Structure formats: structure tokens, C-alpha cells
Amino acid sequence: MSKSSELPIVPADGCCAPLSGPPLTEDEAAELAKVFKALSDPVRLRLLNMIASVPGGEACVCDLTGPFELTGPTISHHLKVLRQAGLIEGERRGTWVYYRAVPGALTRLSGLFALPSLAPA
Amino acid sequence: MSKSSELPIVPADGCCAPLSGPPLTEDEAAELAKVFKALSDPVRLRLLNMIASVPGGEACVCDLTGPFELTGPTISHHLKVLRQAGLIEGERRGTWVYYRAVPGALTRLSGLFALPSLAPA
DNA sequence: TCACTGCCTAGACAGATGTCAAATTAGAAG
DNA sequence: CTTCTAATTTGACATCTGTCTAGGCAGTGA
Prior knowledge:
three-stranded antiparallel beta sheet
């Protein structure tokens, strides 16, 4: 779980070049697109929402499968996509696997939609 | 252009149920997913970025085709997707068609990524 | 009217994506 | 060791998506 090959993604450190701001390079656009692609499925959005809104900050996979009329493998697939996008991370404890949101990932995305007129050049 | 059938999308007025906040309904998730799907392509991200960052706020399609190694119809297709997602709107003036970003759409998305700990309940 | 240009639509096609059933791995408990 | 449960991986399948070529519509200007 959480192999080192799953991290790239979210604009990275510097981040915060808003969409309305300076021109996006081809590479930046490609990387950003991966994150939005991960968010472009209703099931994944609800999964992320469930994980991010759980009181303790952690959700067990066993609790994430029930609310959907989908098989286990399908949920597992969606969780993997979110994980590979750097939006969530998972940890196995005993029999169960728990996921939590990567806080930096969400806040970084927030900056993308700022308007140039509201942000000091 | 800009037929009335192209608007739905972005969470709408109330908006601002952050991803980390209250549970997303199935319908909300589906509608949000459409917007993210529109943003999930590198070409569309760069198109939106180009349109949103142009000084006058408007970009001519004729200026959007050059930077890509893609045919006109393909650019046209991507612009249509962005338009149907409510992110941009287009207007024909004489020979040329101009697109501009829908400002409310971008700012609305910004609120989705707020963290619960940072937002007053 | 005719020709030319800018943009869009229609149709086709390869490749990506969401889903499931079956098989596999990891840990818990007899 | 064996068995049971939780979660993932694999492989297959139908559908969706990005791209192109060909063709159509709108506006300009001779």
C-alpha cells in the first residue's frame, strides 16, 4: 500500500498558479488534468466526500462499499484512482484498510480558481 | 450560440458545500462530476487558462487554435465541452467567435476544497 | 451572385474507462 | 494448518472520449 509510485500529481509544492493567471505549460496542464480526471466520476466524488467528512478523518473501506450499488472490486478501483491522484492515502490496520484525505491536496486545488483581480500580481 | 440548453452544471447558486463538508447527494455528485470531467483534459485546461487569462477577458477562437497541434474541429469540440459545463461562453461577432470565462463558475469551484477545520461550522 | 474564410457539425475509428466475475493476497481466529 | 473474511488484482466486456476527415453554415467582400 502507498507505494512510492503513486504520488506525483497535485501541482506540487509551488502550486497556486490560478487558472485565470499565467499561462499553463503543457506539463502543468497534463498533471492538473490527472487530478481533475480523478474527480470526474460521481462515485469517486462521493467517496472522497465521505472520507474527508468523517469525524475521525479516517474511513474504513468496509463502510464505503455499502452506500453504493457497486461491487467491492469497483470501489477498490475508484479508491486506487483517488490514491494515485494524491487525493487520499490508505493504511492497513489488521483486517481492515482505512483511508483519509490528503489535506494539502484539497487546499492546493482551491487556489486554482482564484480570480486574478482578487490576487495581487 | 449559447443556447439555453447548455447551462446546468456548476453546483448552482447555493453552492459551497465543500468536499470535506456535508455528504454529497447522488445528484450533486453527478453534476459536479460533469464540471470536473470538463476540466480533466490537458487541452481544455489550457484553453480555459488562455481564455481566462487574456487581458480583455475575451479570446478569439482563431487565436486558440494555433498553440495546439490539433485540427480546428477538435478545438471546437473542446470549447463545446467547456461551454456545456458552464465554464465559458461564446459569442459570434462578424466573422469571428469570441469566448470568455464565466466568472462565477470558477469562484464557485474554489469553495469546494475548503477544509472543515478552517471553515466555521 | 460568386468565391473565400472562420467555425461548427456529422460520422468514423482507436484507445481509455467503468463495471463485473473470478482469482489472489493479508490478516484473524479456530 | 485450515478456514474465514476484507480488500485488491486480473482479465474481459460494453461504453465513452479524443481525434481526424469530410461536409455544412455564416459572414465578408468583389
